[in-house]
Amino acid sequence: MNKPLIRFARRLSSWESETGDDDLLQTEFWDRHRGQPDLRPSVYEIEPTDVVRAFAEHATAFNPPASTGGVDLGGTGRSMEATPGETGFSFTMDAHRELVLADRNDLLELVRHVRGSMNARTHHVTRVQVREYARARLLAGDEEWERAKAEAGTQNWLAKIDL
Amino acid sequence: MTVASAQITPFVLSDHFGAGSSDDAKTIREAQGNAFLDLQRGRALPPYLTLLSPEARVAVDARWSDVSEAMFEFLAANYPSELLKLIAGDVLSPPAMTFAAEIAGRTSLGHAVRTVLLPLLDNSSPLVREGAIYGLRQHADATVVGKLRILAANDPSPAIRQAASDTLDDL
After folding, report:
1. How remote is the C-alpha of B29 from its chain's centroid?
2. Interface subset of B 114-133, CB within 8 angstroms of A
3. What's the average pLDDT block by block, 10 residues per block, for chain A (163 residues)?
4. What ipTM was predicted for this assembly?
5. Distance between A103 CA and the closest CA of chain B, angstroms
6. What is the pTM of this model?
7. A36 to chain B: which residues are within 8 Å by CB?
């Protein structure tokens, strides 16, 4: 069985039923520089049990990390390519993939397909889980986490974790 | 983001546009700016551009053909008051507004940020409310905290209740 292809939501409210398909697309699948659809959206190919780990690593780029939903975009028949991630953690860099979409309509069809089975596809991650995971890795002396903390600014959430 | 831009830009300003403080640099900058403004006068501008000052309009129009997060970040760094004008002008779609509001929160204009973002906490779109929550987290005073408590307890959207609760925990 294929592993889920998890994409972490930028907004908790994006995938709620009140948010229309076009608004979801422009919030979650939009090129932040060009203001156009992102036709190669990033996902992580991971087991459901690794969602907290993946989001914690992914979230080292945010300050502070908010709770999120990891949505499984797998099983939709789209091709994907393995591309290096940018988290600095070997696990998520190795698990990073890009879905390959044809055009905006293809992206919209993907979104509608996924929305048809949201409950089975959604993996919630809370900010508390993220911080607890990061703290546990730091206490365990994980070199990747220690490096991430050392590189984080003093105002970053990682720097503020008490050990 | 849903605003269609019919812009035709015959030349693009370099990253060095506006650099230098000599008289010649100022003259070139003025000439380039005026040329852009002349072009803009000859076409229908998208609503978001009409809200910006001439200087910010030139800088934005030379770099982006539609609204984007990168544009909001540029405004926040270089023309923070203009970004707030854009948000208050109510011309942005909810997906654009959610990121504009969050990015506005990175500016140091605390009072102005609160003035513009607090009303967005009552916006009908949960995307906009969520962006406003994130934008206000660095500028929370007693009024903001009170409003976040109400949202955390009563907002119809579970996402907004969670976002408000997370933000309160971080204050």
Report:
1. 24
2. 125-127, 129-131
3. 92 94 95 90 96 94 83 94 91 96 96 93 93 95 94 83 83
4. 0.90
5. 17
6. 0.85
7. 66
